[in-house]
Inverse folding.
């Protein structure tokens, strides 16, 4: 079995990154994590990745004259790692069309809502403010529109009486950690054809 080489892009604590790293330790998992790239040098996830012996890089967009230059440098790093698949895991930057198109069908994201509902930020607070009864999370292909790409896996989580954004997000995070490794497994093994989903 040739394992697909995966880079994970993060900005923060990296709990989804951590479960992907753990999943990829199984000998029959079809992907290996070859690098973790953060747009924040202080992202706690970077240190976790290093503890696992994984290559890391951090790049602040503010140090570049343009988003294109920032993303070109990201591309160079990903190419130096010979990456096949990119996983966004709490990466808090909107990516430009050229970068997204370069990775079309090979870049996935985890989003804490039942897409296409609640794209963007603060999903838990927005669901509660709307009196929603059900919430959840989605792993989806990344396309140029924010949180718009086709879903790969999605899980519903009931909103409970007394839920706060924190309690709701903690319950949803448990499901995120279940479906993200599974979605990456589907993509990396070829069981899921990106061509069929995206065309
Ligand atoms: C997760 O809730 C994920 O769905 C969202 O950002 C958060 C990242 O958390 N995209 P972590 O860094 O993986 O712990």
């Amino acid at each position: 079995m040739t394992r697909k080489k995966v880079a994970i892009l993060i900005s923060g604590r990296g709990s989804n990154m951590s479960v992907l790293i753990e999943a990829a330790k199984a000998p029959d998992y079809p992907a290996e994590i070859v690098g973790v790239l953060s747009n924040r040098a202080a992202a706690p996830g970077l240190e976790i990745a290093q503890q696992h012996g994984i290559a890391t890089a951090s790049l602040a967009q503010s140090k570049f004259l343009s988003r294109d230059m920032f993303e070109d440098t990201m591309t160079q790093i990903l190419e130096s790692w010979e990456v096949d698949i990119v996983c966004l895991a709490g990466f808090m930057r909107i990516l430009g069309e050229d970068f997204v198109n370069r990775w079309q069908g090979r870049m996935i994201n985890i989003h804490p809502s039942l897409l296409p509902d609640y794209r963007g930020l603060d999903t838990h607070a927005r669901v509660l403010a709307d009196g929603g009864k059900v919430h959840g999370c989605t792993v989806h292909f990344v396309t140029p529109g924010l949180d718009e790409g086709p879903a790969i896996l999605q899980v519903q989580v009931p909103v409970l009486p007394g839920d706060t954004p924190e309690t709701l997000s903690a319950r949803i995070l448990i499901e995120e950690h279940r479906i993200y490794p599974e979605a990456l497994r589907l993509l990396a093994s070829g069981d899921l054809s990106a061509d069929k989903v995206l065309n």
